[in-house]
Amino acid sequence: MRRLLKWFAVATTIGMLFVLIGGALVTKTGSGMGCGRSWPLCHGQLIPSNITAELLIELSHRVVSGVVGLMVLILSIWAWKAIGHIRETKFLAIISFVFLVLQGLIGAAAVVWGQSDVVLALHFGISLISFAAVFLLTLFIFEVDKKFDVASVVLDRKMKFHIYGIISYCYIVVYTGALVRHKQASLACPSWPFCAQTRIFPTQLHEWVQMGHRLAAGLLFVWILIATIDAMKRYKRQPIIYWGWLIALILVSCQVATGALVVFTELNLYVALAHAFFISCLFGVLSYFVLLATRSKKEKEARHESNVIPSAVLK
């Protein structure tokens, strides 16, 4: 039974990635109104008569979101019963389902009544929180068999500052990226990294939205690079931290690269979807760091226990 729960948790996590990428696909292809002002039906019909590419994309996203939403509900209840003794399980179970329902309601409201670009930009970020909660639930399920053992992790204040600060800032960057999509400002600046070859600074709203996101993403890359260098210097004996930050650096590098390629390829769909995929994976890794930070031993406790972790790590 426990093995079945593991497989179901992995499948649900992958399903949440499909929901995130599907939402990005709807936005990138302008298919948000593919089913008209009707929800959950398409043009008020259970089986639409006039099939278009936009309708297929929007309807597929609704179906996938509905199926995955049911999977998240089942996983939340199942995890609550199976590993409810783990302190974070019930909280994550509630967050994963509630935020998935919330993003669905925002999407439905946008279809039926319309929403501003500022509100619609929250859609991806809310789905991202649900994905992170499902991802952590999956890790907890594996942790029961010590597949993910965090009992020996020791983090100092500086590393915890990096973790809490970067994930909070990353969420802001995600919002600015979603705002770029909903404002249709992805190609507002035809050059990279500057807005245009003949000038550095933006001159109108869409260019400011685009360049604001680029600046925010650039600062995120720099901050993760600093945290990674810190981890490589002081956490060599803690592979979860050492390799975790290296993975985060690779993901944010891919995020920056695909962001540039979006401009160079003039909004190639596959590149744009990869851009959404990498930020989703990065947020998942950062969420795991938050888990480590909340469960790590205190420095005094670690010093008192043994000398397994050298004092240089704890400075």
UniProtKB/TrEMBL annotation:
The keyword Lipoprotein does not apply. GO terms for cellular component: plasma membrane. It holds the Pfam family COX15-CtaA. Heme binds at H213, H275. It is a multi-pass membrane protein. The chain crosses the membrane at residues 7-26, 63-80, 92-114, 120-142, 163-180, 211-229, 241-264, 270-293. Its EC number is 1.17.99.9. One of its GO terms (molecular function) is metal ion binding. It catalyses: Fe(II)-heme o + 2 A + H2O = Fe(II)-heme a + 2 AH2. GO terms for biological process: heme A biosynthetic process. Its main location: membrane. It is an enzyme of class 1 (oxidoreductase). InterPro entries: COX15/CtaA_fam (IPR003780), COX15/CtaA_HemeA_synthase (IPR050450), HemeA_Synthase_type1 (IPR023755). Its cofactor is heme b. Keywords: Cell membrane, Disulfide bond, Heme biosynthesis, Iron, Membrane, Metal-binding, Oxidoreductase, Transmembrane, Transmembrane helix. Pathway: Porphyrin-containing compound metabolism; heme A biosynthesis; heme A from heme O: step 1/1. It is found in: Cell membrane; Membrane. The keyword RNA-binding does not apply. HAMAP family: HemeA_synth_type1 (MF_01664). Interacts with CtaB. Belongs to the COX15/CtaA family. Type 1 subfamily. Catalyzes the conversion of heme O to heme A by two successive hydroxylations of the methyl group at C8. The first hydroxylation forms heme I, the second hydroxylation results in an unstable dihydroxymethyl group, which spontaneously dehydrates, resulting in the formyl group of heme A. This is Heme A synthase. The gene is ctaA.
